[in-house]
Amino acid sequence: MICTAVSLWLLDRLFPLPAPYQEKRFSQVVVAADGQPLRAFADKQGIWRQPTTPAQVSPNYLTALLHYEDKFFYWHPGVNPYALVRAGWQWLRHGRIVSGGSTLTMQVARLLSPHRRTPLGKLQQIARSLQLEWHYSKQEILTLYLNLAPFGGPIEGVEAASHAYFGKSAAQLSQAEAALLAIMPQAPSRFRPDRYPQRARQARDKLVKRLVDGGIWPTTALTDVALEPVIAQHHYRPMLAPLLARRLVSQYPNQPLLQSSLQKPLQQALQQLATDYLSQYPLHTGLAIMVLDNQSQRPIGYLGSGEFGSRQRLGYVDMAQAVRSPGSTLKPFIYGLAIDQGLIHSASLLVDAPRFFSDYRPANFSGKFQGPITAADALTRSLNVPAVELLAHLGPKQFYTRMVNAGAKFRLSDTPGLPIALGAASTNLEQLVALYASLMNEGQLARISYLKDEKITTRPLMSPQAAWMIYEILRNQRRTDQPFDENVTGRRNNLAWKTGTSHGHRDMWAVGVSPKYTIGVWIGRPDGTSMPGHFGARTATPLLLMLANLLADNTPPPEAPPGVIDTTICWPLGKRALQTPPELCQEQHQAWLLGDQEPATLLAAEGENGSLMQSVWLTAEGTPTLQRCDDAVQQVKIALWPLLAEPWVAKSQRRHQQLPMHGCDNQPVARPLFVVTPRQGSRYLLPPTQSSVAITAKVMGGGNIKYWYLDGELLGQSNNQLQRFSVSAPGRYQLLVSDNLGNSDLVEFELK
Fold first, then answer.
1. Does the pLDDT of residue 23 top 70, yes or no?
2. Residue 633 near residue 340, CB atoms below 8 Å
3. 0.90 cut: is pTM over it?
């Protein structure tokens, strides 16, 4: 007995079992959150093999398999002597194989260690079977069969076969489908349902009858199976989220099954919607879409290309990962961090007027300046100058460092500077979606993970209060280019959204966040070619709103977190109305404050000093004068508007009306700047014989250097009081003049 055991041990060492999955590797499959396949990748030999276990396979299939192939699987030691003797006798009697004598264990042995169909080969198979039973449990052997059994062509394993022929997991097999897959490995080429449906049906029905006759399945199975035709097509090459799947298998090359967080029905809807939407654009246009579930902080929809495989649209390039200029989409985070820094509140007075920041001169997309504006309106209108002004106060390096420390990824061509506010820090759609999702995640920025069970890590980006304020500001915006409509604005879905357009109209962005979802859209040409006439609000926003309506998030918006105070503030000082004397409160605005912070109105980061609240002496007639003058009789407090805002405020509130302009000897002490011509509201006529009208503009007062702007474009600078220019297109124009001392004035005129 001891000698026998030693001999068996030596044989096992001399002829070890092949490693089950060393040469027979699984193909990699990326599946949706519910296990449905999104894309599969064959192994190096082109074989489609997906991992599974008995617990993951339909009981219908296990029952059919064991009663068809090996009734005594759980009782024999790997070999069924009775079955072998019966098969041998039938072979000798009929001269051909009538019934097989192989057990499931023997079939696994042949799959792992192929042999010739000879008596010697059969002995080798028997030895391997005993060896398998020695090393593995019955469940492990059954698992090997489920994963390695042939099912015709390049398909191996019941899971791959189920997806290939029926487009479903083996866990969902009906009795008819289970019976068909149970008989296939005996003759996989003969019983392929996609090639020989009638032959496959006969074999299937024969097995079902045997199971019914044996009392294994109820008699109703015959009727049910008879109603189910054999219709099979190849489904083993699903192509949903193909670019994300390619990315995941590259990241996890040794993981056969990658369960993503994507939702298959949504993915199918995104693909169809993208195809329809792209049909209105030129062939070289591409798009990318990403949808994130805010609660799980995981993507549920992902489209890296609007038309995968298209050469004209560069459909093999994943534009959700492509690093591009984000345009204005980073502005909400400048405002959010400015709120946290105590620089502004939601209704802080900002000034949209021409500015020089050293050598940087931002202009607005519209070409006009709005003057005094609340922080909320400046953000929703995506005005450039206020955003750059805030970034100048925050510090570009500090802003960039804060974003990167929170986990955001950017690419810079130089050191951080003010152009970041307008898109000079390149990033991708994935990062933008993660950033906007933080608005609904109490300001916490999550690291995106596409695997369903991978741990999500977060870092603080801004306070919950600032995040809520930015969400509410963006949620309550209205489109100014068309009538207010809840379907158009996305307000019906409580969608807060922001658009962006990169320099040269190369990238069109729209990113939105609702209580449940964050949605990102990119449209452009993957090769970086400009698309004149296209911008985020016109090109990307309609698709964003379609997606919001598709998702139909009717969840109520979140309540304001503790620490947000809703109150009334006063312009121009920016303080609470309750603490501001009525004579200093020239305009009232409703605002959200962060706790006890009560930030005063920001003065220009460059070019303006002092305080907006000043003490002034008045004469008996109420005229401003100097304290040293004999006619000074009363001292009062006054509230000044920021110098840059003066062209837009009432004349009675301008500095030349509130501050002394002359000394005691009636000599001027200040020279306010104002436009003499054209006059406000002037109309010029364009004669039919002329292509343009020449205009000579004139100013008085101000500093030595004048800067002249027409509809936001710098006409030039001069050291005198005159500027000549011409206009040719009928319409309204805005002429604004500023000087080196910070004074400015503007007029509007019309060409008819």
1. no
2. no
3. no
